[in-house]
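Intended use. Records like the one below are meant for learning the mapping from a protein sequence to its folded structure. Do not use them to infer anything beyond what is encoded.
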Amino acid sequence: MSDIDIEKALYRIIQGRLRYKVRDGLVLYIHAPTPEIIYESHDVYDEAYEDAYWKGVYVQQEVIPILLENNYWSPLDDREAERLQKEIENKKVEAFTSFTNKKQLSLIKRQIFSLQKQWQRVFVKKNSLDHITCEGVAQLAQNHWVVSNTTKFSDGSPYDWKEASVPVVANYVARNAISQEMYREIARSEGWRGMWGAGKGTDIFGVPFSQITEDQARLCAYSRMYDNVGEHHESPPQEVIEDDICLDGWFISQDRKMKEEKKQSQADNMISNEKIRNSGEVFVMAQDKENAEEIYNMNNPLARGTLRQREAQIEGADSMDFKELQDVKQDISIQRQQMLSDRFKK
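Structure written out for the chain above:
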């Protein structure tokens, strides 16, 4: 994105309106809705939903069987979407750890873009018929009502809708929505950072926080995010901060680290006896299936690998002595070598 594109989007956010040229001599401005308009739009939604419902329009739950019968969607698609999302997260962490290797980073990014396209195709399947449901009809009516009440002439007077139509303007607004990437570019830009620092946060817009627009609120959220990254005791290099994918990888790795520390803390709290805590293995009784999963997740990756190895070794065997387990044999062998080494030292 060029500096001009970033500056243009920034001042669009500051003004709180989108410029739409209908023709030479006729320019409209679609303003961000006020809290009053947003509040009233929910009544429009409710009325449109009720009207559609009594006309026999499907509700979302009734569309699921149609999707299944016509092979548009199945629960397996949701699982695939979750798998792809997890793979994307892992790739982003890999990008963060490889940010100094430009060739490797470029390859990882191409893989991420490919995975994101796959995820998008799978993710939208379940919502492919939302437009024919009561929810979809009501959402469309709400969006059109908001556009019809926020579109104005350049002097600020309401538009009379003599030339442009509400659906056309609504589509223009949707096509020109500010992307997440643009918000992040703006939040990092020198022009905005100067305003953000001097304006003391949301005061820069000259209105209480409850009255700033949705675009302004998002920009402030990203700005605070970058503030927090810069102040973090393990703040990544500037090169990472300026790369969305690498920074996402840093966020994910930090989140995973925090969760691992929390699990360890929970495990330590469950095992109050110091002698037990220092044991090689500790067995904790689970109250139910959910509790068993929580206890299992307290194991670190190495311990989980050992459990999987044991399951594979035990599977199909009639009986097996504990000492016959491969990891136990390895531990015993290591202990013997350590004992011999200690003897030679003495």
